[in-house]
Amino acid sequence: xxxxxxxxxxxxxxxxxxxxxxxxxxxxxxxxxxxxxxxxxxxxxxxxxxxxxxxxxxxxxxxxxxxxxxxxxxxxxxxxxxxxxxxxxxxxxxxxxxxxxxxxxxxxxxxxxxxxxxxxxxxxxxxxxxxxxxxxxxxxxxxxxxxxxxxxxxxxxxxxxxxxxxxxxxxxxxxxxxxxxxxxxxxxxxxxxxxxxxxxxxxxxxxxxxxxxxxxxxxxxxxxxxxxxxxxxxxxxxxxxxxxxxxxxxxxxxxxxxxxxxxxxxxxxxxxxxxxxxxxxxxxxxxxxxxxxxxxxxxxxxxxxxxxxxxxxxxxxxxxxxxxxxxxxxxxxxxxxxxxxxxxxxxxxxxxxxxxxxxxxxxxxxxxxxxxxxxxxxxxxxxxxxxxxxxxxxxxxxxxxxxxxxxxxxxxxxxxxxxxxxxxxxxxxxxxxxxxxxxxxxxxxxxxxxxxxxxxxxxxxxxxxxxx
Amino acid sequence: xxxxxxxxxxxxxxxxxxxxxxxxxxxxxxxxxxxxxxxxxxxxxxxxxxxxxxxxxxxxxxxxxxxxxxxxxxxxxxxxxxxxxxxxxxxxxxxxxxxxxxxxxxxxxxxxxxxxxxxxxxxxxxxxxxxxxxxxxxxxxxxxxxxxxxxxxxxxxxxxxxxxxxxxxxxxxxxxxxxxxxxxxxxxxxxxxxxxxxxxx
Lengths: 468, 201
Description:
Number of domains of chain B: 1
Largest sheet of chain B: 7 strands, mixed
Structural class of chain A: alpha/beta
Number of strands of chain A: 19
Domain Aconitase/3-isopropylmalate dehydratase large subunit alpha/beta/alpha (chain A): 8-459
CATH topology of the largest domain in chain A: Aconitase, domain 3
Low-confidence stretches of chain B: none
Oligomer: heterodimer
Largest sheet of chain A: 5 strands, parallel
Number of helices of chain A: 16
CATH superfamily of the largest domain in chain A: Aconitase, domain 3
Family (chain A): Belongs to the aconitase/IPM isomerase family. LeuC type 1 subfamily.
Catalytic activity (chain A): (2R,3S)-3-isopropylmalate = (2S)-2-isopropylmalate
Low-confidence stretches of chain A: none
Order of helices and strands of chain B: EHHEHEHEHEEEHHH
Largest interface: A-B, 79 and 58 residues
Helix content of chain B: 25-40%
CATH class of chain B: Alpha Beta
Cofactor (chain A): [4Fe-4S] cluster
Strand content of chain A: 15-25%
CATH architecture of chain B: Alpha-Beta Barrel
Distance between the termini of chain A: 51 Å
Shape of chain B: globular
CATH architecture of the largest domain in chain A: 2-Layer Sandwich
Radius of gyration of chain B: 19 Å
Mean pLDDT of chain B: 96
Mean pLDDT of chain A: 97
Number of helices of chain B: 8
Strand content of chain B: 15-25%
Shape of chain A: globular
CATH superfamily of chain B: Aconitase, domain 4
Function (chain A): Catalyzes the isomerization between 2-isopropylmalate and 3-isopropylmalate, via the formation of 2-isopropylmaleate.
């Protein structure tokens, strides 16, 4: 038998039907659902008199536009249209019999944090959600990608997706990371290398010593941003770190089923000599704490660099860079570490897990944020929040001057009231620095949690290594 | 779903790379529970100022492009989120075809589910279509999905590739779910086999 990649193995285990032209029905093991991209899909089912094929494999949680302020139990803090969307999810989850974590449940949070936390996401599975950051779940060695609402409806009705196999890319990060360098810096540096369209048409497998050394939280951060490089899915082969994370989670198998599952998971790796269509290798020691300066995630540089000039680029990117600099209010040649900020946001499905909060707390302990700065920490789930309180992290944040919020997507996409005002500049641990992403004419610099914490103290983009 | 066979119409030029889904339809318009009506907010933050007045030099506000049915754009069109609100807004505005050198995967798929044809052409051919589009309303571009051709106003013809299954569905306005439900026996057989092999799933 010819050697297979991890992607080949998961794909082969999920093909329910293959047509002559290679179009497949890929069986879906877990379907995650949130309030923004699902109402039209449920409405479609109703109109066609169809039911949900596998409600026991369908998990719903509101996250995108729920308020994160402490008074959110009071529905008045939600806008009318947000409330209608959340209520539609409440109703659909109940009517179709889905697993559901409502806003009032302590387990509620960002769908990509709740899924792994509750043990819904396990190695070797296929996972989809009407959200591009579904790539996060690839950290477990599960094939996970975002889908549109029509495909949400298709999965609800059939538990399958119509798919053709993607190409396969290997991204290897060799050796060790230097102090102050994190999973966020790895994933942003890879995008800097490939560009935001470099991964289009590919499923990426991340490997190498620096990836193996990451915790599950770090691996989720890496895979989360696979989509920002254009890849629908990122994968990391499961290992002992993965099994240890999954063990004992509410929906992970137990007893003999656990043993059988682990035995199967141990077969999920890329065989020696398997073919990749593209290979990229970065040295872990070459990766620096990174920051974005423009309005595309590919606009990334080490914090020690200066703002580039449009003349550094070619083709369509020349105009795009000029547009980005105008939007961001930056001048070529300015050191990135001199850019002053108004706001710090720590949270999101990229960096809203406990390890991220620990990294921020390590920098913030005993310090204060700069006068006049707005800083908020939005934990990725109610359980992350509870754990951070138990570990004393919440006290560190509050004493430093951060707002300590309830769980949700918050200022990552600013669908709830957590937004930047026009012209405000934010150091953000989220995943997209698009125009208007965090608020109309808001300016976003993507960074790791430690870098965000450092920026909160100094009031400008700061090399976290100076604070360690 | 609406069928797509042929289209002759005005092409609007947007010579920008990385036009993302947040530009196509900003998040404040994702709070709808319907698929319709989003055309009014297509490219909202590029098209209108904060008071809701049209920004005159934005392409779709120019008199010659207000009735555009084709959009010509740069690399990596539709990057970013999975929001199907992006193709819904494009379609609702009246655009049925996008021409670009490349697209983000999820957006590309979403188009076919909504009767929109996303055409991929090499950069130099996109440049030629862009130049034609810049002539304004008198320059009409023709698309023939069956023949897989784009014909410019001067008669120059470019061929494009499209997946045969996606083409078949788009030309016939087929409902994917209906097609898949015809294969429900295969799905059930797969489920029986998979639950024996991986009972913990």
